[in-house]
Design goal:
Helix 11 links the parallel strand 14 and strand 15. An 8-stranded parallel β-sheet has the order 11-10-9-5-4-3-15-14. Strands 16-17-18-23-20-21 form a 6-stranded antiparallel β-sheet. The protein folds into 2 domains: about 400 residues, TIM Barrel; about 90 residues, Golgi alpha-mannosidase II (Immunoglobulin-like), CATH 2.60.40. By secondary structure, the chain is an alpha/beta fold. Helix 8 crosses helix 9 and helix 11 packs parallel to helix 14. It has 15 helices and 23 strands.
């Protein structure tokens, strides 16, 4: 992959290579606005509303003590700087809860002294708020992970098991803990109170809601959303599983849901689907963009969907240094991109079983390779060429918000259309378009460098007829000249051609 990534240096401006300059996208991040200045965007049918900043999100998940070995929340400022440089403006922070590994925990009302570096409750809140404030200074929104399946029995068991036994049901071996009894009204009210306290004390922009709505349904999150709206807070809830949204969850972490050959409903965790099927046809039909709790509902009709490349549930990174894998289906497609920290520079995938097992003293799921994978910051420099390519693609997305941040009420109506080329057997080239201009995304997933003859989709992209267009290679920032219907461009193998037509 290093050799392939190195061959893509042609895409960077020559001056940048000669002078050792690197791309910094931090100035392109949409400015953080306090809630009083945030506009809520309502769907035409009135079924939901979301903060205006949702459409600009590019999200990355990380674990506090994997991002910085043995680190605390106070040590993560360099991570914030890295993400701002990358162009990322949304972070999903894995659970900073006490007990176990975060997902196995002692309850939403607890905070890990190890992860925040404090034992006093008020100082813990302050440490979390300081981190959120530092993120906001960098125009990054923060979403903490909260757990609703139950609590762990590890490390002596969660104290709340003895304090409130009526709040719990059966022991669930795969999670090594006891499930919450969500039929208990008192539990629902208490849980909503805890979420509200987290929002008030930390200033976070919302939550990634683990396992939701699979265990707890919509109730406690709906209650908090209503409270926050009345208080003027413009927050975001991200469900884990494909949900019916119900104006409670703004979008889902896992967007793809399908039935296997036996008719059993499944979720698709590894997002390489659009490298196997036609991305434009699938978006137009909504294929697999179904709701897990309402499978027969028409697919693909919500406004926002994520394209999750990887997360803590992943065994390995999926991009592996491929500009096509990250750019074609995530950065330029009509989704909210989401991946696990390190994907953007192909962080080495190492499974630190011994290290974490000795420290945490509980079994480690083999499927959580990335969650237990320490981030190797030196590897970012070793893979600098690919990292610059990723930043370049994100920069293009940020420089053309009128195209890439356009999310219609119905995802099937996304501003995407097919682009024809003279090269058969390649992934479907496509255009993102709006307001009389288009960005063409042309992948060369073949085995050799090729010169493509590309047809401008004038009618499909709603471009003016009978005009001459200026063609610019956005990756190299070079003007390719003028064209009326077709133009030619050389694209190396494994690379993504990105062209502005205006």
């Amino acid at each position: 992959m290093m050799k392939k990534a190195a061959s893509l240096l042609w895409l960077l401006p020559i001056g940048m290579i000669l002078h050792g300059e690197t791309i910094d996208n931090s100035s392109l991040l949409p400015k953080y606005k306090p809630d009083s200045e945030v506009r809520m965007e309502r769907r035409a049918d009135g079924t939901s509303e979301t903060p205006e900043w949702v459409k600009s999100l590019i999200l990355v998940e990380f674990r506090v003590d994997s991002a910085i070995q043995n680190g605390t929340i106070q040590d993560l400022i360099p991570v914030l700087d890295h993400l701002a440089e990358t162009g990322v403006n949304g972070i999903w922070v894995s659970p900073p809860l006490n007990g176990g590994n975060g997902y196995g925990n002692f309850g939403i009302h607890t905070i890990s002294p190890r992860l925040v570096g404090e034992t006093d409750r008020q100082k813990q809140w302050q440490a979390l708020k300081t981190f959120v404030d530092e993120a906001h200074k960098r125009n990054i929104r923060v979403f903490f992970d909260i757990i609703n399946w139950g609590v762990t029995k590890h490390e002596g068991g969660a104290p709340i098991l003895k304090e409130k036994p009526e709040w719990f049901g059966e022991y669930y071996a795969p999670y090594a803990g006891y499930l919450f009894n969500w039929k208990n009204k008192e539990l629902n009210e208490w849980y909503a109170d805890q979420i509200e306290e987290w929002l008030q004390k930390t200033g976070a922009d919302g939550f990634r809601c683990d396992c939701a709505p699979f265990y707890c349904g919509y109730g406690p999150f709906r209650e908090v959303k209503e409270r926050m709206r009345k208080a003027g807070r413009k927050i975001l809830f991200i469900s884990e599983h494909a949900s019916s949204r119900k104006n409670v969850f703004d979008f889902d972490q896992v967007s793809f849901c399908y039935k296997n050959e036996k008719g059993s409903q499944q979720v698709r965790w590894v997002s390489d689907l659009y490298l196997k099927k036609n991305i434009v046809d699938m978006i137009r039909s909504g294929e697999e963009l179904r709701m897990r709790d309402d499978y027969d509902r028409e697919p693909g009709r919500e406004r926002f969907y994520t394209l999750m490349l990887s997360c803590h549930d992943s065994k390995n990174y999926i991009v592996k240094g491929s500009p096509i894998a990250i750019g074609y289906q995530a950065i330029f497609a009509p989704f909210l991109p989401l991946w696990y920290l390190g994907e953007e520079w192909n962080n080495p995938s190492k499974f630190f079983v011994d290290y974490f097992y000795k420290r945490d003293k509980h079994p480690i799921p083999k499927s959580w390779r990335l969650y237990y994978n320490l981030i190797d910051w030196q590897a970012k420099e070793q893979n600098r060429d690919f990292f610059e390519q990723v930043k370049k693609m994100i920069r293009i997305r940020r420089q053309h918000p009128e195209i890439f941040e356009y999310f219609p009420d119905d995802h099937r109506n996304s501003n995407i259309c097919k682009v024809s080329t003279d090269r058969n057997g390649m992934l479907q080239a496509y255009a993102r378009f709006r307001s009389g201009k288009a960005v063409l995304v042309v992948p060369n997933n073949g085995k050799s460098d090729e010169t493509f003859r590309i047809t401008i989709p004038i009618a499909e992209a709603k471009l003016p007829r009978g005009k001459t267009f200026q063609v610019t290679d956005l990756m190299s920032e070079k003007a390719l000249g003028q064209a009326q219907q077709t133009f030619s461009a050389a694209i190396p193998t494994g690379a993504l051609g990105v062209f502005l037509i205006q």
